[in-house]
Write a structure and sequence with these properties.
Blueprint: H1 10-18, H2 23-31, H3 34-46, H4 48-61, E1 103-108, H5 120-132, E2 144-146, E3 152-154, E4 176-181, H6 193-208, E5 217-221, E6 234-238, E7 240-242, H7 254-258, H8 260-270
Parallel strand pairs: 1-4, 1-7, 2-4
Antiparallel strand pairs: 2-3, 5-6
Length: 274
Amino acid sequence: MGVSRRPGRQRPARRRRAGRTPGAALVLLGCLPGLAAAAALVLCAKGVEHAATDHAAHRATVPRRAAVPHLAARPPIRPRAAWLDGDTRRPQPPPRYDDKVVAVFVHHTDSPNAYDCADTPRIIRYLYAGQTGSRDWDDLGYNFLVDRCGTIYEGRAGGPGRPVTGAHTQGFNHRTTGIAALGTFTAGVPVPKAMTDSIAALAAWKLGLADIDPRAKVRLVSSNSLSRYRSGTAALLPALSGHDDAYRTTCPGAALSARLPEIRERAARLQGRT
């Protein structure tokens, strides 16, 4: 600050320097007492414009708060061991995985509706035997199955919480999960509310892991020209789709397809979306 070392000369030196203080600094000094005034002089020396620029730069460097992901609770899921026994199990290769799940495809199994829910494990074993036997697939194609009582079962091996590549929707098995409703839901067939509630809960949880809104549309790339889209084509599909959105089929049936808008809305609410 150029203060003299001799005490007797300090007061005159301050008078001479005060005469050169800019008008803006005098206004600032009038508002700030004591040591605050000295700090203001330093600020004036650098220039008010520089200070404003520095302040704006500081604000620009403050990181924005990350958006809170819309996670939903994981619903109860019965493991493969609940339906797959040693007599039915077939040798199979290790599971394959994608980076995440961004879409859900809803199916029906095209099997009888008048079953007791206690028989669900037997029905899933029957489906598994058909797909791994006559079709010679390496495992059950669906990632999950839901019965008329709303009970959710793990289908394809690999872990319910992981992005397991399924075999449920021709051309669109990557980055998706397949949920099969046990039964046949053609036009006019009642769809149990317990079933649709569980499908919504499962979809909300799986899509929430990637912060996907069940009501949104997502970009998926077809891997097989037998789908509705030639291989390599980017398709914009509902994040919660029916099988027939991607493949020429009547699955998941007209009755269940009609419930998909309701299922999407419920799934979104379970994620905490408005």
